[in-house]
Amino acid sequence: MSEIMMIFEKFLQHYRLNHLDPQQRTAASTTDGPVLLLAVPGSGKTTTLIARLGYLVLGCGVRPEDILTMTYTVAATQEMRQRFIDRFGKDVGNRMEFRTINSVCYKIIALYGQMGNWIPRMATEGESDAVVRDIYKTLAQSYPTDADIKTMRMVISNIKNRMMDKVQTEAAGFDLPFSAWTLYNDYQAAMNERQLMDFDDQLVMAYQILISEPQILNAYQEKYKHICVDEAQDTSKIQHEIIALLAQKNRNLFMVGDEDQSIYGFRAACPQELMEFEKKWPGAKILLIETNYRSTDEIVDASAKFIRQNKARRDKKMHGVNGHGEAIRAIPVANRLEQYRLLAGMGQTAMETNSPLTVLYRNNDSALPVIDALEKRGIPYQAKGNDGLFFKGRVYLGVMDFVRLALNPRDKDAFMSLYYKLGLFVRRQQAQAAVSRYSKKPLLDVLGEVTGNDKCHDLSRIFASLLTMKAVDALKTIRYQLKFADYLKSCKVGTARLDTLEFLAQEDASLTDFVTHMERLQKIIRDGRKEPASFVLSTIHSAKGLEYDHVILADVYDGEFPVDPYQTETPLVGETDLEEERRLFYVGMTRARKTLGIIRVAGQTSDFADFVFGTGNQGKKNSQPKASASSSKTVAREKTQKWQKEKSRRPRDNDWSKWDDALWDEGHNNAPQWPVRPSAAQSSAKRISSFSGSSVHQVTSNFDETVEFRVGDKVKHAVFGEGTVVELMKNGILRIRFAKEEKKIAPGYAVNAGLMKKISGS
Ligand SMILES: Nc1ncnc2c1ncn2[C@@H]1O[C@H](COP(=O)(O)OP(=O)(O)OP(=O)(O)O)[C@@H](O)[C@H]1O
After folding, report:
1. Secondary structure of residue 330 in the 3-state scheme
2. Ligand 1, from 40, 43, 77: best to mutate by most atoms within 8 Å of Cβ?
3. In this predicted structure, what is the pLDDT of residue 491?
């Protein structure tokens, strides 16, 4: 055994880490150079990462202050620090930096600010929302729902995080009623005007500082001799670029992740970086930890087989240590709504027997009917991650417009939101004329008088009849007779939420009861039920990193999971493809320790469930008859192919060659810009060069003098001597040829720090 390995073994013994398996040991003892550690679910990646951090300090003598560990959320950084302290003590733990990448960016920006540069203020969520709301009103000529605002914010965030330019943004095919590039530009202009930046601008600004201010980059490269990144599969393109800049000098970069568990494509996660790690970091080591300490062999084997269908991944041999358990169960139900009844019943049993059960699903909508039933029966439960968007989307708000007009036939707002959805072919001026005419009659009747269209009176009578019906019948009338379903179809919005609403309305005697019921449910969702309970309802996203003894996967059928992006109202942004859907299902499966059940809805095809039951260990116990399973599989495949064909308009996770190489090759030129100070007159602060991409780069000096740089200008630099400007790069950087070498110089910093001056030129 080498001396180094003897030290490592002693370290393990001393800190009670003897249980580390051989792959974990290799990872924990690989301390130098670029390393990518791929960790299957339940493989003890946090244990390994913490062991390695401890070994760096206590075995290799690295100063704790020289190590930066980044992870995804503030909660995760706190948990990691605590686990480090629990094992290695406070003295060392409190000297280590555990940060989110945004907090690292904040530090970089703060240093830049301390050097006398102007920095925009962080916008509140409300301020950013207000900016996109105004843009939507201008571009779409209508009012956005909260779901629209969320979608627009996600699109803008994607553009920045993926470092997309105009061509890439337009090719991405974001689902918006107007150009995503226009939205992005208008947003940045409005934020500039208000001197604000958002969370993603923090990344953009830090990135720009690192590439344009060599002193700052150097300071952080000197400071952080070792960089560790957890949950690397969730890191975005721009975050990877920032990490690469910080780690460039020492090359001691340790990234831990699993491309198979990358489920944040909609937030611009970039798992392809893990696939191309060696390309970016020549000589890098790729290590694996493949033992799953969490689940039974049945769950480990079935999930490993399932994820092997994906192409954009590295092969891993995940294996378990817990031995055999129960077979994965197919739970048959007659229809989707029957499923919710069954789940509520399971919640009751979980309470009565005090036995834990967790239900996981793709979309928050799945939980609503179950929560509703549990609340009615007073059964305790814990709900995680419900964003309440159901109540903010077009389907719910649209139905409520119908209900409002039925309850008050003279409700102007409801009428103006509805008149064009009723198939009456009336113009806005006519609707407005009806609203302004003095009359006590229902607005639809007035519209009939204004337009001479008798259909208006017929509709008015149908609206009046809604009040005499049970709520569920009224909702069906809105859907079919008042043709709301047709309207939604024409807008390419799915109608599944109408089914959910009808299910929720079943026990409501009237529309008035229904309204009160929905308000109560909305409040319950908003407040959340977070106290621990045996019965847990959670989206798979919210269950990431967690584990449960008994798990049921709900709403697993084609169109819902994998989602059909053209049949859902859920905002879908960016990379949502079948491989990402499979990863999400895989994350769901691997949350289970002891048992896993998958609900099979009769009459619905499910490629995912078919795969698990048809070719997994439990193939013979498939709940579907063979013939129907294979025919439904064909349908599912056709559906998926159709979907994939349509989706090919968007960038896909495994379609990386298209734009990432170009981005990397073009380097920094495509980088988005952070808000620049609107005008020098508004502040006496210094600023770095203007990033206009024009034939001149301007710099405002400490003394508020404007210095202009053009190609051909001669400069004198304190370190590099005399040189000639040979290129004005888009991001404000000058490429200058000095006697010995060419350099990229940020003129703002160089001029203001007294390092460089212009000696001749126009
Ligand atoms: N070598 C090992 N031998 C036995 N149990 C282990 C080993 N490594 C990890 N475990 C156990 O596996 C479980 C998960 O470990 P840990 O908390 O470190 O992983 P994680 O990072 O939270 O999870 P994941 O691997 O899913 O990302 C823990 O209960 C831990 O004790």
Report:
1. strand
2. 43
3. 83
